[in-house]
Recover the amino acids of this structure.
RNA sequence: CGGGGCGUAGCGCAGUCUGGUUAGCGCGCGUGCCUUGGGAGCACGAGGUCGGCGGUUCAAAUCCGCCCGUCCCGACCA
């Protein structure tokens, strides 16, 4: 049996992180491959997780005054081409529609890689007066980017995301919006997904194609690689001038609007897997977990009917209390099999109920996030189950965040010179932070040497910083570097 | 898109080098019995265009060519 068990185990995280990631995603039922390169199915378990994430973010987007809308999937080539930097950035990975039925189209249509162009062209028609501003619209959509190298959730040819597109009267207002949404992302990702992030600005070479400034929230995965978890762009007036988005201001002068755009994607699902998971599979943050409690009956021949009935009753009580719950009543599987299965799927709490518990009017509650068996299981009087579950779900959410934050902090290292920098990137990965006064060429050199990129210049800066770790010149800010997904 | 690995039943694999009956094994799946507190046991059974196309041959999972998918490493990107 030991061998059988081994055969079914996941590849350990420490042995081969990539392999572990793929196996976890597939076996937990989050996604599956299809016959189209880079296109995955998001399976019901993964999609429910995404829906929970989406709902939590959607509430925040609406609470900050935005409305949802839906714009077309297709972008006429002429529109996409209008902004030079933008088309240069996205054209290489565009999928094109050239035929409708048997007829070749007069103008080919890009399947949106992002919607600045299509939305900009529409905004030009909608906005005439300063009274029409601000325009605060978000859309939940799919986009297509024909990536050369794909990975489940982290880089798929088609992915789901939200993209906010706003127009403002002044630069200051647009900048305020850009940072407001960056803050919304930080709050969403930290509170709901229990993933700590560093909020900051992208360098010139890393910013979005066509943007004036790009801001980002950067997370650190368990293998020491960074993941860009969300971006918020101040688009300035680039797109406004290209698409002719003008308004007549109070002073009777025609002006171009100031725009922002911001997005997060299904990539975040990959982030959850990579930040919280362990050798037994997923560990899902309770706030977004598709299933928060799994009820598993321990059936014996003598007590079969009574135990099943009790399991159903516990499940119903949890559901009535607003907890997302399931009962696994499959009698052909042993309890042990189910423990492993639901561990793999990352369910935060397991409720075990058997004859011994019933005799004592208690239930057994086991925490997914703890590995020590004595510590993870608790026996609770049945009438205190709901309050205990509520408390434990909160505790787990906090514990996951704290664990991820501690890991991130332990793997964030400060350097004063390039020799230290290279040594840490090579030997330990993680975030490497240092005073920065370098150029785009300097960044390129660092990337060539170490594969590390400038992740962001954090919004929160120390009072004083030493000389640039790379150039030795006086610096007035620190920057985060890492190898990244 | 360049370099490398892999592709045989739902999953994991053997067989390929050295072509030759009916392509095997474990898990899973179905039925029955039995069992159930960390992936139980026995019996019977179902399940295969050997990734695809083409070529060589009396004969191809096996040899050759092209293509596709996936994983890893690079260049590019959420």
């Amino acid at each position: 049996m030991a061998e059988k068990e081994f055969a079914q185990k996941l590849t350990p995280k420490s042995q081969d992180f990539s392999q572990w990631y793929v196996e976890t995603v597939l076996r937990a039922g989050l996604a599956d491959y299809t016959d189209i390169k880079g296109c995955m199915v998001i399976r019901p378990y993964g999609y429910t997780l995404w829906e929970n994430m989406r709902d939590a973010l959607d509430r925040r987007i609406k609470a900050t005054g935005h409305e949802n809308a839906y714009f077309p999937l297709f972008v006429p080539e002429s529109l996409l081409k209008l902004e030079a930097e933008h088309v240069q950035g996205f054209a290489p990975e565009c999928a094109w529609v050239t035929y409708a039925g048997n007829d070749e189209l007069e103008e080919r249509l890009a399947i949106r890689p992002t919607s600045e162009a299509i939305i900009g062209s529409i905004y030009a028609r909608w906005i005439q007066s300063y009274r029409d501003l601000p325009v605060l619209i978000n859309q939940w959509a799919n986009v297509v980017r024909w990536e050369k190298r794909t990975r489940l959730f982290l880089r798929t040819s088609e992915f789901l995301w939200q993209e906010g597109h706003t127009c403002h009267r002044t630069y200051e207002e647009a900048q305020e919006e850009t940072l407001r949404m960056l803050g919304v992302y930080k709050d969403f990702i930290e509170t709901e997904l229990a993933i700590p992030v560093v909020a900051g600005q992208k360098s010139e070479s890393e910013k979005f194609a066509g943007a004036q400034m790009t801001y980002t929230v950067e997370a650190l995965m368990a293998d020491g690689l960074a993941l860009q978890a969300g971006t918020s762009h101040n688009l300035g007036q680039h797109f406004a001038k290209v698409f002719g988005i003008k308004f007549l201001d109070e002073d009777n002068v025609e002006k171009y609007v100031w725009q922002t755009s911001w997005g997060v994607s299904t990539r975040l699902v990959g982030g959850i897997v990579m930040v919280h998971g362990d050798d037994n599979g997923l560990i899902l943050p309770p706030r977004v977990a598709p299933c928060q409690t799994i009820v598993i009956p321990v059936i014996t021949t003598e007590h079969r009917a009574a135990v099943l009935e009790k399991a159903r009753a516990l499940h119903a009580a949890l559901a009535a209390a607003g907890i997302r719950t399931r009962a696994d009543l499959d009698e052909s599987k042993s309890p042990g099999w189910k423990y492993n299965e639901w561990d793999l799927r990352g369910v935060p709490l397991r409720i075990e109920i058997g004859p011994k518990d019933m005799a004592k009017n208690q239930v057994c509650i086991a925490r997914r996030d703890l590995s020590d068996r004595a510590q993870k299981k608790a026996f609770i009087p049945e009438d205190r189950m709901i309050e205990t579950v509520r408390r434990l779900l909160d505790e787990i959410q906090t514990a996951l965040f704290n664990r991820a934050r501690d890991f991130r902090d332990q793997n964030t290292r400060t350097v004063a010179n390039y020799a230290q920098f290279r040594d840490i990137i090579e030997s330990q990965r993680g975030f490497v932070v240092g005073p920065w006064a370098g150029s785009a060429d300097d960044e390129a050199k660092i990337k060539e040497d170490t594969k590390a990129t400038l992740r962001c210049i954090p919004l929160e800066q120390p009072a004083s910083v030493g000389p640039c770790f790379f150039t030795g010149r006086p610096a007035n800010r620190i920057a985060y570097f890492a190898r990244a997904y």
Remarks:
- Confidence is low (pLDDT under 50) at residues 1-7 of chain A.
- The domain at 412-482 of chain A is CATH 3.30.110.30 (Translation Initiation Factor IF3).
- The longest strand of chain A covers residues 158-168.
- The longest helix of chain A spans residues 385-410.
